[in-house]
């Protein structure tokens, strides 16, 4: 469902977010002609996706929680208390009342077709590849690692950002170079690792493990590589409880998640990934909403 927002027109819906561009017929909110970058409104819905499918029903309050988390991280990373200031896509301006709390006003960037994944711990698709081949995105790792283990050092494991409806595909660094050139690929990798390290350290101060995360970058009109999309949210990241991880022995005990793992686990147990996914039961919806809320509270006190 999209909104009827005065001054804006709906241009695109991803799995979770709806994008609006300034309505040229109106004056004000937009941008463009005066030399500023075009503005865009990114509205986070309550939709939840897993295994590249949008699920039903929605998770109440999720869009607002994702937006609050992104804004908190953008601010922290730009503030530069714990490192240099990371440029982001946020823009100044008014957000329509109808989407207040769940929308970000951003500069429209030339998006890079790469999902910049950083993993500090081994799990998910990385674990699956490791189990079969001993590698993650072509990077060979030491043998004997278990699901949920900490990696000797964080690794950059990019994915090709597939068009809507297709599956994102894990790719090697060499393939990334072919897609965006060596210089840009190195810049994406280094910046992603830098942001991950800083965020993981912050998470640790709050008793959380940032197991892995995904960034998206765009290039602005001055050619500056800029952090875009959502950042370090419970949709784009795996967060675990640090104490549970340290004390636990089974994967379930160790990976007490503040993210949509609850949804992934339930689906994996109740769906063979053919045809349409089943409706999520109410308790899965409620537990997911609770965990998203708890993450924001723990991080931001
Ligand atoms: P998923 O993230 O679940 O794989 P998706 O990427 O298809 O889904 P959403 O995240 O729901 O879609 O939609 C957000 C879209 O907006 C993405 O295509 C993202 O690349 C794009 N986007 C984010 N920030 C900017 C920006 N500053 N300029 C241009 N496009 C942006
Ligand atoms: Mg996205």
Sum up the structure in keywords.
globular, single chain, Phosphorylase Kinase, domain 1, four-stranded antiparallel sheet, alpha+beta, 301 residues, 8 helices, D-amino Acid Aminotransferase, Chain A, domain 1, binds magnesium ion, eight-stranded antiparallel sheet
CATH superfamily grouping of the largest domain = ATP-grasp fold, B domain
Order of SSEs, N→C? EEEEEHEEEHEEEEEHHEEEHHHH
What percent of the residues sit in helical stretches (DSSP H or I)? 25-40%
* Shape field: globular
Catalytic activity: 5-amino-1-(5-phospho-D-ribosyl)imidazole-4-carboxylate + L-aspartate + ATP = (2S)-2-[5-amino-1-(5-phospho-beta-D-ribosyl)imidazole-4-carboxamido]succinate + ADP + phosphate + 2 H(+)
EC number: 6.3.2.6
Pfam family, one: SAICAR_synt
Organism: Microbacterium rhizosphaerae
Question: Your description of this structure?
Answer:
By secondary structure, the chain is of the alpha+beta class. Helices cover 33% and strands 24% of the residues. It has 2 domains: 100 residues, Phosphorylase Kinase, domain 1 (2-Layer Sandwich), CATH 3.30.200; 157 residues, ATP-grasp fold, B domain (D-amino Acid Aminotransferase, Chain A, domain 1). The protein is built from 8 helices and 16 strands. The strands form 4 sheets. Strands 7, 8, 11, 12, 13, 14, 15 and 16 form an 8-stranded antiparallel sheet that branches. Helix 1 packs parallel to helix 8 and helix 3 crosses helix 4. It is globular. The site of magnesium ion has 2 residues, from loops. Magnesium ion (MG) binds next to loops. Keywords: ATP-binding, Ligase, Nucleotide-binding, Purine biosynthesis.
């Amino acid at each position: 469902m999209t909104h009827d927002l005065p001054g804006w027109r709906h241009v695109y819906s991803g799995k979770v977010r709806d994008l609006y561009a300034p309505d040229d017929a109106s004056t004000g909110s937009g941008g463009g002609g005066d030399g500023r970058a075009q503005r865009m409104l990114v509205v986070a819905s309550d939709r939840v996706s897993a295994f590249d499918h949008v699920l039903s029903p929605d998770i109440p309050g999720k869009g607002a929680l994702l937006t609050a988390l992104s804004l908190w991280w953008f601010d922290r990373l730009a503030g530069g208390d714990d490192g240099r200031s990371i440029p982001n896509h946020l823009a100044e301006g008014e957000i329509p009342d109808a989407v207040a709390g769940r929308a970000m006003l951003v500069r429209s960037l030339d998006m890079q077709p790469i999902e910049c994944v950083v993993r500090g711990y081994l799990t998910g698709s990385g674990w699956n590849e490791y189990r079969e081949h001993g590698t993650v995105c072509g990077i060979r790792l030491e043998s004997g690692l278990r699901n949920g283990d900490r990696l000797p050092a964080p690794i950059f494991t990019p994915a090709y950002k597939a068009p809507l409806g297709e599956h994102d595909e894990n790719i090697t660094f060499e393939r990334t170079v072919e897609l965006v050139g060596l210089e840009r690929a190195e810049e994406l990798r280094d910046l992603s690792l830098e942001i991950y390290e800083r965020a993981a350290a912050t998470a640790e101060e709050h008793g959380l493990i940032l197991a892995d995360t995904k960034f998206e970058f765009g290039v602005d009109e001055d050619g500056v590589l800029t952090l875009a999309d959502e950042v370090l949210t419970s949709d784009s990241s795996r967060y675990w409880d640090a104490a549970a991880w340290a004390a636990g022995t089974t994967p379930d005990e160790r990976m007490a998640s503040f993210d949509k793992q609850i949804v992934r686990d339930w689906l994996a147990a109740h769906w063979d990934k053919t045809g349409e996914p089943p409706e999520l039961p109410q308790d899965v919806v409620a537990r997911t909403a609770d965990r998203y809320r708890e993450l924001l509270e723990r991080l931001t006190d």
